[in-house]
């Protein structure tokens, strides 16, 4: 069975890599447990990103949805590759992540029950890419060793992360529509 530190490291590493993929700066990633959480990923937004966030612009909300789901998707990807798969281990993700994602989906008109699942499928697909997963894996390993990374320590991981292209968002939106039609 995977240890809590390992699960948290992959969860937080996936959030960070998804942020870099979307062009959002990550300032700190930690797997140090406190009374409220097992770990966290902190972001820094440009002035343009802050303005988009304030007006619920889908150009930023879709990336924030992907980032919110990334922890769960990254944990799932890691869990699948853990052999044998632990029979008593549940994947629930972080409740706060799920609530933020559901709120952001509603704010841009994606309020059908299948919309969350379609977006989670997109996030899961992102981590099936070898170039993306390689960064998640290396960052998770570094987090298990050092517990907290920030600033220049994160630069090498950010530089290794591929960047999103417009086709990715089209794929995500097509997935939502496909699920809505009973796909």
Describe the structure in your own words:
- The chain has 183 residues and is mainly alpha-helical.
- The chain has one domain (4-180): Methane Monooxygenase Hydroxylase, Chain G, domain 1 (Up-down Bundle).
- The protein contains eight helices and three strands.
- It has helices at 4-21, 47-54, 58-81, 95-107, 113-126, 130-146, 152-160, 166-180, and strands at residues 25-30, 40-44, 148-150.
- The chain has a three-stranded antiparallel sheet with strand order 2-1-3, with helices on one face.
- Helix 1 (4-21) crosses helix 6.
- The longest helix has 24 residues, at 58-81.
- The chain is globular, with a radius of gyration of 16 Å.
């Amino acid at each position: 069975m995977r240890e809590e530190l390992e699960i948290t490291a992959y969860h937080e590493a996936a959030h960070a890599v998804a942020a870099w993929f979307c062009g959002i700066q990550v300032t700190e990633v930690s797997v140090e447990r406190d009374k409220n959480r097992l770990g966290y990923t902190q972001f820094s937004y440009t002035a343009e990103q802050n303005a988009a966030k304030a007006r619920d612009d889908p150009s930023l909300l879709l990336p924030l949805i992907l980032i919110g789901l990334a922890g769960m998707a990254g944990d799932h990807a890691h869990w699948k590759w853990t052999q044998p798969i632990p029979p008593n281990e549940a994947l629930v993700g972080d409740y706060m992540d799920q609530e933020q994602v559901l709120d952001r989906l509603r704010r841009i008109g994606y309020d059908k029950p299948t919309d969350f699942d379609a977006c989670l499928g997109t996030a899961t697909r992102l981590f099936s890419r070898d170039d993306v997963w390689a960064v998640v894996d290396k960052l998770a390993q570094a987090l298990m060793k050092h517990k907290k990374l920030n600033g220049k320590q994160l630069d090498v991981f950010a530089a290794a992360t591929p960047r999103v292209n417009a086709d990715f968002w089209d794929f995500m939106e097509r997935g939502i529509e496909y699920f809505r039609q009973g796909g």
